[in-house]
Structures are given as structure tokens and as C-alpha cells.
Amino acid sequence: MFDWNDVRLFLTVARSGSTRAAAQDLGLNQTTVARRMEVLERCLGLRLFDRTTRGHRLTEQGQALCEAAQPMREAAEALSRRAEVLGRSLQGTIRVSAAEVVFSHLVAPIVAEFRREHPEVRIEYDSSEGFVDLAAGEADLAFRAMVAPDDERLVARKLADVAWAVYCSRAYAATHGMPESIEAVRAHAVVAFTGPVGERPGDLWFMSHADPAQVAGRSNTVSNLTGVLRAGIGVGCLPCFHADAEPMLLRCFPPPPEMTTAIWLLTTPERRKVPRIEAFVRLAALRFRDLRPRLRGEGTPAGES
Q1: 57 shares its domain with 69
Q2: Cα angle vertex 245, ends 148, 204, to 5°?
Q3: Are strands 215-219 and 261-267 parallel, antiparallel or unpaired?
Q4: How far, in Å, CA of 242 to CA of 191, rounded?
Q5: Which domain holds residue 98?
Q6: Single pTM value for the model
Q7: What is residue 87's predicted lDDT score, i.e. its pLDDT?
Q8: 26 and 152 share a domain?
């Protein structure tokens, strides 16, 4: 079977009239071009050129083959153009997993910006508080709040540290006061987390300072616990980037470093190479860099302004 590269060389020699000119056009050695023409002739069992001191002239067989090979060149060029277009296009779907408050406060604006630049990309979003299995293909990307990832099958990129603090409502503070330190939490009613959120080291540290008899309620999501705190039931810990935007909530004392976590962006080695996912990861990293002061809890909470 002949090599398509030899056919490409053949067409170039036929057009230019010599192996020397063809070699110059293609940036190859003339000897290499001449040798490949001989290989092609042997492979096809045809004499394609009359070789003279003035160059290469197509034989009748060579002319017939040239006419047959031209559509091959056009098809190859069309294939190359199509591949180039596909390489530039990011068309497709990105399945993103993130906790609800992370998506609504942090990821949604990035998605909106990304879609303005790439409207051909569709985003599918999973708001599970638990961790989806990226390696099993349950999502393409995951924004996860954790101290550090522990799944060696995944590619992880730390986006930012995230401060957590203790909050209560204005109504609760007016009636019961509010704790001014982590030690003072023991004297207050506490709203606790259950499920994956409650297993964070920072939340376990917070609950170690609470009086079990003072637990007034439990919630399995940040959004639900926020609503409970707004109702004035007790005090609880929330991420500052979320709670600081709540005008009805007060930050009781500065964020303890023991409650700090981080947001990581995770994917698989295979999905990381997909152009649309690579582009989204790049934009997310840039925007989270801009968000770092807010994520560290810097600035004045809305409830105190």
C-alpha cells in the first residue's frame, strides 16, 4: 500500500516539474524527494515520470494518476481545515459540581463570563453537598471546599483559602448577646451541621467548643443553616464570603484560623486536556485570584455596615 505522504510529494513534483523545486517548496532534501518517487513507482508498478536533464515530465500513467490523486489532496486539505476549526471550537458541555453557595456566589459569575465568550458551550450544574465521583465520570469539574484533596486519580488546583466565622442574627444578638470568642460559644444556643459539611475539621473544632445540651438545631446545607440563623435560633459557623453578604447576620468575632478551609478545583487528567475544560479552568483560576480578599473575610460584613 502506498503512503499518502508520497502521493503528496508526487503531486508537488508534478506541479513544480522537478524534485529540486519540489524539495524547496516542501523544505525537504532533494535526494529524499527523488528516493520517495522511486519508492512510489515501485509500490504502484508504474512509471510516473520521464526524467530528463530539464526535470521531471509526467508520463501518460503519471498524468492519469495525477488526475486521480488531486481529489485526495483536496480531501486532505479539507480534513486539515476541519481539524483546525474543531481545535479552535470549544463546543460541547461542561458538567460542574459545586455546593450551592459556592456556585451562586463564586462560580455562577465565572460561568456567565465564560458563556459570553463561548456561547457554544453549555454548562450543566450539580449542587450536591457530597462529593461526586469525577473518576467515574459523574462530572467534568468540581469546586470543593476542603483542607486538601486526597484522591490521587484527580488533578487538583488550589484556588483560594476560605475563612469561616461564627454568626448570629441581629434579633438573637439583641436578646441573648453574642459570643465574643470561641470559648464564649459554650454559653449560647448553637445550630450545627450534619452530613459532609459537618465533617470538616473546622466545623468539628467549632463544635468541640459548643455545649451539646445547647444544640438548638441541625442542618445539612449552608443555605439551610443560614436561614435558621436568620430566624434567630442560635449561633453557627458559615463561610465569610456567603454570610458577610447577609444584612440580617452579624459576625460574632474574627474568623479563627482553625476554621479556615480552601476551595480546590478538581478534574481528571483526561478531562483536563479537553479544550473547553482547559479554557474554563484557566478563567476560574484568574477570577478566584481576584476573589481572594473576599474569601479571606476581609472587608465589612453587610450586617455591620
Answers
A1: yes
A2: 35
A3: unpaired
A4: 17
A5: 92-161+261-304
A6: 0.69
A7: 57
A8: no
Partners of 44 in beta bridges: none
For the chain, the domain total comes to 3
CB under 8 Å to 291, separation ≥6 — which residues?
106, 160, 241
Confidence of residue 84 (pLDDT cuts 50, 70, 90): low
176 and 32 assigned to the same domain = no
User: Comparing C-alpha atoms, which of 139, 148, 160, 177 is closest to residue 267?
Assistant: 139
154-177 confidence digits (pLDDT tens): 999 999 999 999 999 999 999 999
Together in a domain, 247 and 196: yes
Q: Are 250 and 127 in contact (CB under 8 A)?
A: no
Cβ atoms of residues 294 and 197 within 8 Å: no
Q: Is the domain of 18 the same as that of 151?
A: no
Do 194 and 276 belong together in one domain?
Answer: no
Q: What is the pLDDT of residues 231-249, one digit of tens each?
A: 999 999 999 999 999 999 9
Nearest-angstrom CA–CA distance, 52 and 146:
75
Asked if residues 234 and 168 have their Cβ atoms less than 8 Å apart, the reply is yes
> 148 and 266 share a domain?
yes
Q: Does 266 share its domain with 255?
A: no
Q: How far is CA 121 from the centre of its chain?
A: 13
